[in-house]
Amino acid sequence: MNLSETVNTGYFFGLVPLLVFFPIAGMLFNMIFGGKMSEKAIGTVASAASGLTFVVAVLLAYSLSATHGELHQVFLAEWIHIGELQLDWTFRVDTLSVVMMLVVSGVGTLIHIYAIGYMHEDVRFKDDVRRFRRFFVFLNLFIAMMMILVSGDSYLMLFVGWEGVGLCSFLLIGFWYDFNILGQKSTENAEAGKKAFIANRVGDFGFLLAMFTTFWHFGSLQFDAVFESASHHPDPVVISAITLFMLIGVTGKSAQVPLYVWLPDAMAGPTPVSALIHAATMVTAGVYLVVRSAPLYNLVHSTSYIVAMIGAVTALFAATIAVGQYDIKKVLAYSTISQLGFMVAAVGMGAYVAGIFHLATHAFFKALLFLSAGSIILGMERGHHHLAHGHGDHDDADAHHDEEVFDPGDMRNMGNLRKQMPVTFWLYMAGTLALAGIFPFAGFWSKDEILLDAKLHAEHYPGVYWLLAAAAFLTAFYMGRQIWMVFFGKERTEVAKHAQESPPVMTVPLMVLAFLAVFGGALNLPGSHALTHWLEHTIEGVHAGEFDFMVAGVSTVLALIAIGISWLLYGKNPLKAGQIDPLKKPLGFVFTGMENKWFVDEGYGAVIIRPFEKLAKFLSIDLDWNFWHDWFHNEVVYAGFQGLAKFLADPVDMGIINAIADWLAEITKRSSEKLSSLQNGFVRSYALSVLVGVVMILGYLLLK
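and the corresponding C-alpha cells:
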C-alpha cells in the first residue's frame, strides 16, 4: 500500500515509513543546522520528530481498529534477493507492532521534552555545552532504530533495528565518555558503554545463530513464511535450537541472567538515556522478540519452561540486589532487571498479553521513576552548586572539598526532599506505588495478571509463581526503603537542605507519565480486557482470564507488609548522617552480598575477564611479539635468510659458479694463446694453409 492508496481508502497504513523518516529527519536536521540553532530549537526539533512519530502510530492504531485488526504489510523497496533469500524492506502493521510503536514513540516523546530541561543543566554542570546537540541527535537515532525493530516484517529487518539500538545504547551510555558518574574526569563512563556493547554482542551472536538455523531449515526469514512452515513441518529439535538461540539474544538485550550485568552500568548515561533504555526501548526488544516468535515457542514446551524460569530467577535475583543499593538510579536499574524478569517469565509461560501489558505499564511508571530520579539528582546538584559558589553556610574550603567528593545520586546524602521538591515527591510516589503493585495503580493490574497466569499454570511451570511472588514482596520493600531514605527524615547533608525543584519543562512530562502510571491499568482491566481483544488479532490462542481476588489479595497484602517493614526500618527511625544501613547488622553476610551485587561482576572478572586479558596479553606480547616477532622473525627468518644468503654468496656463488666462470676464462685465454701462434701475418702462410685444407677435403671426398 502506498500514500495514494492511503488517501483513497481513508486509512493510514501507507504512512508507516514515516515512523522511521521523522526521527531520521530530525536527527539530520540537527546535525546539519544545529550548530547555528539555540538549545531550545534543537530540543524542539528532536521532540517534534519523535512527537510526529507518535502521531503516525496513533493513525496506524486507528486504521487497524477500523479494519478489525487485519494485518497490513507495506512494501517500501526491494532489499536482498540472493538465491533462496528473497527479502524486501517491508513494514508490518499489526496489533502487536502498533502497541510497541505507541509505547516507544509516546514515552520517548515525553523523555525528549524532559531532556531539553535536563541536558540544559547537565552540559553546564560538566562544562561542555557543545554536546547538547549531539545528545538529541543520538536520541532521535534511538527512536528510529527502535521503530525499525518493531515494524520489521522479517527477522533480518528486526535484526537491523536490534543492532541499531545496541549502537545507540553504546553512544548514549558512554555519552560523557571522559567523565565518571560523579562528574569527575575519568574513563568509567566509556568503560560502561563498552561493557554494554560487548555483553549485547554475546546475545546478538545467539540471535544470529537463530537466524542462520531458521533460514537453513525453513528457507526464509519472513515471519509468516517461517511460522507457516513450522506449523506444517514441526521439527522439535530444530525449533528448540532456534528458540534457545533466540533466548541468548533475549538475555542480552532484555538484561536477564546471565547477561544482565551491563544494565546497571547503563546509569553512566544522562538520566533521560536511562529512562529511554530502561522503560521504552532497548530492554523491551527481547520480550517483543519472544512474543513475535510465539508460534515457534508454542511448539516446544521445554524451551518455554526455560524462558519462564530464567525470567523468574532474574526477577528475584535482581530484586535482592536492589535491596542493598544506595544509588537512587542503581535501585531503579536492578528494579528494571527484576521487572523484565516478570515479563520474560510471562511470555515464557505463554501469557503473552500479560507480558505486553506489563511492558506497557512498566514503561509508564519506570520512565516516571527514572526521570523523577533525574529531577532529584539535578535538584541536589543545584543545591551543591549553590553551596559551592559561596551562597550557603559552608566556607569556600568546605565547599570545594564537597565539590570533589559529593555524590548527588547517593540516597544517604538526601533526606526530607519532599520539603524542597514537593512536585517531584508526589510524582515519585505515584511511580513507586505503581511499581509496588498497590491498587488501583497500573502496576497492580499488570503484575497481578502475570502472577495469576503463574498460579494457573503452576503444574506446567512449577516454582515460577513463588519466585515471582517473592520478587514482588522485595519490590515493595526496596521502593519503600527508597522513599523513606530520599523524602523523609531529616536532611543528612547541607546539600539536601538547599535542593531545588525542577522547572516545568521537566515536571510537566512527569505529570503525564504519572497520569499513565495511575490509570494505565485501564488498558486491560478485568471485564473489558481491551488489550487482550486487541492482541488476539495477531497472537493466536490468547484468552481473557478472570480476576482472582485471592491472588490479587495475597500480593497486595504482601506488598503492604513489605512497605510496613520498610517503614519500621527506615521510616520510623530515619537514617542519620553517617549511620550504617539498618539491615547490615541483622542480615550480616547476606546484606553484604546484596550490597556488592552478589559479587557477580567480580566473578565475571575472575572467571572470564582477567583470564581473557591474560590470554590476550600472552598472545600479543609473548606469542606475537616475543616469539613471532623477536624470535621467529629475527632468529629464524632474518638470521636464516642472512645465513642462506651468505652460503649462496660465498661457497655457491664464489666457490662454484664464479670458479667455473674463471676456469672457462682461463681455458679460453690459453687456447687463444696457442691459436695465436698460427697468426704470423704472412699471406703466403695463409695461402698455403688454405691449399692444404682444400687438398685434404678433396682427398677425403675422393677416398670416400
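(Above: one complete record from the training split.) The first helix runs from residue 3 to 9.
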